[in-house]
Write a structure and sequence with these properties.
This protein is an alpha+beta fold. The protein has 2 domains: about 70 residues, Fumarylacetoacetase, N-terminal domain (SH3 type barrels), CATH 2.30.30.230; about 220 residues, Fumarylacetoacetate hydrolase, domain 2 (Alpha-Beta Complex), CATH 3.90.850. About 15% of the residues lie in helices and about 30% in strands. The strands form 4 sheets. The protein has a 7-stranded mixed β-sheet with strand order 7-6-17-11-12-14-8. The chain has a 5-stranded antiparallel β-sheet with strand order 4-3-2-1-5. It has a 5-stranded mixed β-sheet with strand order 9-19-18-15-16, with no helix packed on it. A hairpin with a 2-residue loop joins strand 2 and strand 3. The longest helix is centred in the N-terminal third of the chain and has 14 residues. The chain is globular, with a radius of gyration of 19 Å. The termini are far apart.
Length: about 300
């Protein structure tokens, strides 16, 4: 009988430590496996193929012999501190494209596949990740901070030119991300729409605390199909997004294959797979100090973040 567990990074007396979450407790991975390099999730992912086999065996046979710490007393950090790269899929849910096209007053484009359009991604700065129950300070120059619930994949094996049918073999696990977006910083004011200097994706997507991540990593072999998971977001306990990863335009496997045809994906890299309809911009609602955002993805857990 298999034993299920999650991978987490928590604050310890000697700094961030990698642990497995098992039976509402955290077990230190480095101690469990007797391997100092596994003290961090990054170190674990660097040797993921053999580490995963060792973890599965040790959880069944030795986890009771290692000191446990209560999960409710732990401070969980972003599970990957800090990702080598964060690749974010844009416009990857048809319902989200429709609502944003309505805001822009443009005609909804046809199925992008029919036009030969491939997945497209932008980068989010690695140092923007924060853990569950952490606080994002509203950027003082932004008045329209928006939420975006996303399934995030964590790469576990270097991937270059991988075929779609093999792409998920390179995933170590899955977690939850909130791709916080400063909508009013996306386009520079007083710059013509035709100008190459019009859009500022860095200001729009990368600011301190703009990537709440967690609460942990669900190992990939514990989720049979990442394209069939319920995804839901609340702001102050009011549902804003309620969808399924089945509604993605380009699947995670297609995204991995596409990205790896351009650049080698490395262990610890994150792929944020896009957000469904229900973002604040479509409603004319934006986050304000004191707000609490919760995101739940089936089989993974709940990510909570606060705005200050």
């Amino acid at each position: 009988m298999s034993v299920t567990y999650n991978l987490a990074t928590h604050a310890a007396a000697d700094g961030p430590r990698a642990g497995i979450v098992l039976d509402n407790a955290i077990v230190d991975i480095s101690t469990l496996l007797g391997e100092p390099s596994y003290a961090t999730i990054t170190g674990l992912l660097a040797n993921w193929k053999s580490a995963r086999v060792a973890l599965n065996s040790a959880v069944k046979t030795k986890s009771r012999e290692v000191a446990r710490h209560s999960l409710k007393d732990a401070t969980l950090l972003a599970p990957v501190l800090y990702p080598p790269a964060i690749y974010c899929a844009g416009a990857n849910y048809a319902d989200h494209i429709q609502e944003m096209a309505g805001i822009a007053g443009i005609k909804l484009p046809p199925d992008p596949r029919a036009l030969g359009i491939q997945p497209w991604h932008f980068l989010k700065a690695s140092r923007t990740v924060i853990g569950t129950d952490s606080v994002t300070t509203l950027p003082p120059i932004s008045k329209t901070l928006d939420w975006e619930a996303e399934l995030a994949a964590v790469i576990g094996i270097p991937a270059k030119n991988v075929p779609v049918e093999k792409a998920l073999d390179y995933v170590a696990g899955y977690t939850i991300a909130n791709d916080l977006s400063a909508r009013d910083l996306m386009a520079s004011p007083n710059v013509p729409a035709s100008s190459p200097f019009r859009f500022d994706w860095f200001a729009h997507k990368s600011f301190d605390g703009s990537c709440p991540l967690g609460p942990w990593i669900e190992p990939a072999d514990q989720i049979s199909d990442p394209q069939n998971l319920a995804i839901k977001l609340w702001v102050n306990d009011v549902v804003k997004q309620d969808s399924s990863t089945s509604r993605m335009i380009f699947s995670l496997a297609e995204q991995i294959a596409h990205l790896s045809s351009r650049i080698t994906l490395h262990p610890g890299d994150l792929i944020l797979t896009g957000t469904p309809a229900g973002v604040g911009m479509a409603r004319g609602e934006f986050l304000k100090p004191g707000d609490t955002v919760k995101i739940s993805i089936e089989r993974i857990g709940t990510l909570t973040s606060k705005i200050a």
